[in-house]
Design goal:
Elements (H helix, E strand, L loop, with lengths): L7 H22 L6 H10 L1 H32 E2 L3 H7 L8 H12 L4 H10 L14 H26 L2 H9 L4 H12 L1 H17 L2 H6 L4 H10 L4 H26 L16 E2 L3 H32 L3 H37 L7 H9 L8 H27 L11 H25 L3 H9 L4 H12 L1 H17 L2 H6 L7 H10 L3 H34 L4
Parallel strand pairs: 1-2
Helix pairs in contact: 1-13, 1-15, 1-16, 1-17, 3-4, 3-7, 3-10, 3-14, 5-14, 5-24, 7-10, 8-9, 10-13, 12-13, 13-17, 14-24, 15-18, 15-21, 17-18, 18-21, 19-20, 21-24, 23-24
Amino acid sequence: MQWPRLNCWALLTLVLTGLILVPTLTVLLSLLADERQVWEHLAGTVLGLYVRNSLLMMVGVATGVILVGSGTAWLVTLCEFWGRAWLEWMLVLPLAAPTYVLAYAYTDFLQVTGGFQIWLRRITGWGIGDYWFPNIRSLWGATLLLILTLYPYVYLAARLAFQEQSVACLEVSRSLGYGPWASFRKVALPLARPGIVAGALLALMETLNDFGTVSYFGVDTFTTGIYRTWTALGNPVAAAQLSALLLLLVLLLMVGEQMARRRARYYRQGCKPAASRYVLRGMRAVGAWLACGIPIVLGFGVPALILLNMTLRQGSLGRRFWSYAQNSLVLATVTAVIAILVSVLVLYGLRLQGLGRLGSPWGLRLAVQLSSLGYALPGVVIAVGVLLPLGRLDQMLSHLRQVLFQQPPGLVISGTITALIFGYLVRFLAVSLSTIEATLMRIPPSLDEAARSLGQGSLGTLWRVHLPLMGGGILGGMILVFVDVMKELPATMVLRPFNFDTLAVQTYRMAADERLAEAGAPALAIVLVGILPVILLNFRLAQQQRLNSSGDP
């Protein structure tokens, strides 16, 4: 058993990862507290509803994202029809819009006084109440919108899996008389299972994390229950225990996926991938266009047009909009810089330990892996886990201020921008860790040895050798963290200081007050910023596709 060697880099890595893990451990330890009366109240009133709605949404979203994501990925990867290259990158566009933005846009468009029903009554001559129209502010409406925004997780994973499949497997299926549909169902789909399941798991985690949509639609789930227990009941410990149940549900999803695979293994043969595509013509091409185009139009095109119309109806953006935009930009920029800095220090410290004879100590590797767990947790869970330890720390600091400086008690860290940025860091550190790790792994250890032979220490090697070579990964990680912070709603709602709103919070508040036209401008700004990682993802996918087409194993 290897323990981390106590040098400066190992200690720094352990301290940074330990701080990131504090909120998660706080939530788990809350299960030990005795809150029997609150739990009896919840069990007798709303707990069953939380469980039922959450499970129904998870089943519906999982089914929808797998069908849409894997089907569209197959069509644009292994079929050929007019416009396929355009649809290939456009299918990622719904990632730019958070689900709660779609909820506000479609509510404005589909409500009784919205544009669609006005048009419907105009062409039919019906009056209000003369016809039945589905209510989008419902469980099924929330599930549908989550599918439209989350299917790209499965699409991206399945697309990469289909690109890397061996040409031999598909050619054998063709020689056996299988057509496109049979090859997809019996050969390509089973081989792509790990990627599809991984994408669906990410979609389910985002489903559990959603707060803005279910709160606005009046659907009671775990996230809304945690928020109400904290704010309405005023019981942070019970909210933390609800958060712990949600955390355990996420962990069960991860373990269940691993157990489902059991000992199954999926290998890529060393032969050239990218078989010749199935050529689709006539009605098949039309069907492929509809299958790929409908998710793009409903998941991005229609909401973007609705938000643009809402913004134009509002007229001048006003000073408040620019104030909210400034708050969002500052928070996103600071968090992105800190996340990249922490990721570089942590992973470089782990790399230095791994360059030794015994390799990287298991404890250090485990600490870094656990620090990525925050991305799998809902934002409201992170917020509860941040506020509880910071509240205790504030009590200690307040007491010290009274004793040493004779100052009145008050909050020092809780309810400040520092607490909010820390919550963002816990939530999104995994994003920067993954991009920095992928970049750092491509730097050969020989460069470290060469730098040391020239008299450079570990810090000099990082500054003069690694950072210049990691420029692309650093920029990509900053963009991804920046956009995630811009879109984050539940953690911001709980952790933000008083009278400090962001674009996401302002969008939610205006929609909650039924002032949907005023919610258009901040929602549209969030969508426009969200296009940045979509461009980055398509660029990387294009690079991967060129590598695959070269035939390298």
